[in-house]
Every structure is written in structure tokens, then in C-alpha cells.
Amino acid sequence: MRRIEVAGPQPYAVEVGPGLLACARVPQRQVALIYPEDLPAEVVARAQASLSPVVTVAVPARDECKTLAVYGHVLSCLAAANLARDGAVVGLGGGAATDLAGFVAASYLRGVAFYTMPTTLLGMVDAAVGGKTGINLPEGKNLVGAFWPPAAVWCDTDTLASLRPEVFREGAAEAYKHGLIADPSLLGRVLDPEFRPGGALLDTTLTDAIAVKADVVSRDLTERGERAYLNFGHTLAHALEAVTHHTLSHGEAVGYGMHYAARLSRALGGEDLTGHTLAFLRWQQPAPLPDLDFDALNAYMARDKKADSDGVRFVLLRALAQPYLARVPEGLLREEFEGWQADVRALS
Ligand SMILES: NC(=O)c1ccc[n+]([C@@H]2O[C@H](COP(=O)([O-])OP(=O)(O)OC[C@H]3O[C@@H](n4cnc5c(N)ncnc54)[C@H](O)[C@@H]3O)[C@@H](O)[C@H]2O)c1
Ligand SMILES: O=C(O)C(=O)C[C@@H](O)[C@H](O)[C@H](O)COP(=O)(O)O
Ligand SMILES: [Zn+2]
């Protein structure tokens, strides 16, 4: 078992290894367990055996659970079960379920203890760590939420065995992102055939990718500064998710978005890293994109949470592991969008 410490106002540990669902224990007597309805029954059963929850809520799969309606339903289930303030919410599943569960934990009775049991690669390297919780609005991605860190994170690598290969590759986008913004040694490892459930490179690569996130959120929980770099590729990614009504997954959108951000970085004088972002897209094989209209996407990009009253800011790279925030003139955004579309079309 590997252990990564997360510092900050409420320090906690991320444990990584096989069999962890069976070992997970929480001090709270009352536990609410929230998980996606398509999660394999044996994964749910292992979490239930460890936690003996007083209430379990199965929610729709993927981002269909990150809605105001599902959020309200889960809150009502907890209230109906008389979950008290000294109880806990545990999010089990991919990033969508843990984002929802975290926001429920942050807001139910004005806040109860929260734990995560990520069961996707993306959940383990990114979503379950760091306390960004939330749901979507029709107007855009993750527009409602709270910073509410978990008290512990259990990454049971056995659970990755049942993931569809394309869902594993979706999650690799965030590990690759950690390589681009902070630890270039991850880039080759993420694309290595041994980085797969049960593969020789799984545990070390997973742990090193988690360590990047843990380091950043330890220093900047509430995104006053460097945490924004974890958003590399996300300004376009979130817009792509919104215009496709989430038929494009987050991990695929991030793969596409990182290539756009790499093009913008190059156009503003940075090192040309588009070879890396294209190599990732060729490896990931994301779902093809529908016809896209720049103005429609730009309307969603304008709501990006990195925007301030002077407008949107993008995370760009001067070189590998040298991220910075910058405003980009609309003309350049449009021009690079054309080039990005041509690159993306050439992939298929
Ligand atoms: N809070 C954060 O910091 C953060 C970071 C990155 C992404 N996110 C969010 O995470 C979400 C994407 O997460 P994701 O990529 O994990 O996708 P997901 O949560 O949508 O899960 C993908 C699918 O895999 C299923 N699944 C989960 N575990 C499984 C398993 N072990 N075996 C078989 N099937 C399994 C899920 O039920 C779902 O159908 C997005 O909503 C994104 O916005 C949040
Ligand atoms: O943890 C962060 O900070 C991130 O930005 C990680 C992202 O991968 C993640 O998708 C996050 O949910 C995006 O946050 P948002 O603030 O842009 O909604
Ligand atoms: Zn992300």
C-alpha cells in the first residue's frame, strides 16, 4: 500500500493499493454511501461491508448525477434517514459521483464529514483528492459547488479491473495533464502499455500522478493561486462538455482541450508542446467531435471560473512544467481554434 499525505487546514491521507475497500473504516457511526447505479455490484458490496451505511443512494451514472435535481434527491434521502451532523457522507465511484457526494457533504446540515472511494483512474489521480466538489448547471460545468476536502481517500486499485478500457483512457488525460504542468516523467509512463489495470507501471505512475495534485492542493486549497494550473486544458474542455450535453466525457474533453491550450501556448511564444498533446490524443482515441461553432463554445468559455472582471484567463505553458495564466485576444482564440479543428479532424 502507498500513502500520499495532503497538507492544509485539514490534513488527510490518500491510500493507494489493492484490497483497500475492505480495510476502510470511518469513526462516524452513521454513514451515507453514494455511488453510481452502474457500478459493479461487488464493488458496492465491498464498500457496504466495510462501512455498514445507514443509507445508500444510487445515482445516475456519469454527469447525469451532477444536476440540481439529483442533488436535491440525495439530500432528501439523507434527511429521511435522519443522518445527523456527526454522520459522514462517503462518495464511491468515478469523479461524477464523488463530486456530487462532496457537495452533498459540504451542504447537508451545513456540512458533515466526507470521504472518497474513487473507482476510476480519473477519480484516483484527480477528482477524489483536493476537495473541489460540485454539480453542473445548464449554463455550464461545475458552476455550483464548494471546497470541502475529504477526511481520507481510499484508491483501491482492484476496482480498476472492471473499468471499460475507454474509461481508463479518459482518466489518463488528467494524469498526462499532471505530467505537462508539473512532472514530465509521467508523460512517457502514462502512454506505456504497462500503465493499465494490473500492469507493471500502474501503482507507481498512479501514485506519482496523485502526488502532483496532492502537492498543489496542499499549498492552495481554495485556488487563490497555483491551483488554477490544474485547470490546464479545461477552459475549452468544459465548453465541449456543455455543447455536447456531456455525451463527450470529461477525460476526452480534457485531452482535446490540452491540445488547444498547447497551440495557444505556442502561439504566445512558448515551447512547442503540441507533439505531446497530439501523441496523447492518438493514444487516447477519444470519441469524434460533432461540427463545432466557435461562438457557441466561446459563450461557455466566458463562464470559466478562472475569469475575472477583465475576462477569461487560460492556463498556458512556457515549457514543460512551466504553467502560467494569461488572457488571450479573441482573434487568436479563433485562429487557433481553426488550426485545432484541422488537427483534430486529421486524427480520425
Ligand atoms: N473534483 C475534481 O477535482 C475533479 C477533477 C477531475 C474531474 N472531475 C469530474 O469527474 C467527472 C468525471 O469522472 P470519471 O472520469 O471518473 O467519470 P464518471 O464518474 O462519469 O465514471 C465513468 C463511468 O464509469 C463507471 N464506473 C466507475 N467506476 C467503475 C468501475 N470500477 N468499474 C466499472 N465502471 C465504473 C461510472 O459509474 C460511469 O458510468 C466529471 O464530472 C468531472 O467534472 C472532478
Ligand atoms: O482540482 C482542480 O483544481 C482542478 O482544476 C482539477 C480539474 O481536473 C477538475 O476537472 C476540476 O473539477 C475543474 O474545476 P473547475 O473549477 O474548473 O470547475
Ligand atoms: Zn478535470
Automatic annotation (TrEMBL):
<protein>
    <recommendedName>
        <fullName>3-dehydroquinate synthase</fullName>
        <ecNumber>4.2.3.4</ecNumber>
    </recommendedName>
</protein>
<feature type="binding site">
    <location>
        <begin position="95"/>
        <end position="99"/>
    </location>
    <ligand>
        <name>NAD(+)</name>
    </ligand>
</feature>
<keyword id="KW-0057">Aromatic amino acid biosynthesis</keyword>
<keyword id="KW-0963">Cytoplasm</keyword>
<comment type="pathway">
    <text>Metabolic intermediate biosynthesis; chorismate biosynthesis; chorismate from D-erythrose 4-phosphate and phosphoenolpyruvate: step 2/7.</text>
</comment>
<dbReference type="InterPro" id="IPR050071">
    <property type="entry name" value="Dehydroquinate_synthase"/>
</dbReference>
<dbReference type="InterPro" id="IPR016037">
    <property type="entry name" value="DHQ_synth_AroB"/>
</dbReference>
<keyword id="KW-0028">Amino-acid biosynthesis</keyword>
<feature type="binding site">
    <location>
        <position position="141"/>
    </location>
    <ligand>
        <name>NAD(+)</name>
    </ligand>
</feature>
<keyword id="KW-0547">Nucleotide-binding</keyword>
<dbReference type="Pfam" id="PF01761">
    <property type="entry name" value="DHQ_synthase"/>
</dbReference>
<feature type="binding site">
    <location>
        <position position="234"/>
    </location>
    <ligand>
        <name>Zn(2+)</name>
    </ligand>
</feature>
<feature type="domain" description="3-dehydroquinate synthase N-terminal">
    <location>
        <begin position="57"/>
        <end position="169"/>
    </location>
</feature>
<keyword id="KW-0479">Metal-binding</keyword>
<comment type="function">
    <text>Catalyzes the conversion of 3-deoxy-D-arabino-heptulosonate 7-phosphate (DAHP) to dehydroquinate (DHQ).</text>
</comment>
<feature type="binding site">
    <location>
        <position position="250"/>
    </location>
    <ligand>
        <name>Zn(2+)</name>
    </ligand>
</feature>
<feature type="binding site">
    <location>
        <position position="132"/>
    </location>
    <ligand>
        <name>NAD(+)</name>
    </ligand>
</feature>
<feature type="binding site">
    <location>
        <position position="174"/>
    </location>
    <ligand>
        <name>Zn(2+)</name>
    </ligand>
</feature>
<keyword id="KW-0520">NAD</keyword>
<keyword id="KW-0170">Cobalt</keyword>
<dbReference type="InterPro" id="IPR030963">
    <property type="entry name" value="DHQ_synth_fam"/>
</dbReference>
<dbReference type="InterPro" id="IPR056179">
    <property type="entry name" value="DHQS_C"/>
</dbReference>
<comment type="similarity">
    <text>Belongs to the sugar phosphate cyclases superfamily. Dehydroquinate synthase family.</text>
</comment>
<keyword id="KW-0862">Zinc</keyword>
<feature type="binding site">
    <location>
        <begin position="119"/>
        <end position="120"/>
    </location>
    <ligand>
        <name>NAD(+)</name>
    </ligand>
</feature>
<dbReference type="GO" id="GO:0003856">
    <property type="term" value="F:3-dehydroquinate synthase activity"/>
</dbReference>
<keyword id="KW-0456">Lyase</keyword>
<feature type="domain" description="3-dehydroquinate synthase C-terminal">
    <location>
        <begin position="171"/>
        <end position="307"/>
    </location>
</feature>
<dbReference type="Pfam" id="PF24621">
    <property type="entry name" value="DHQS_C"/>
</dbReference>
<dbReference type="InterPro" id="IPR030960">
    <property type="entry name" value="DHQS/DOIS_N"/>
</dbReference>
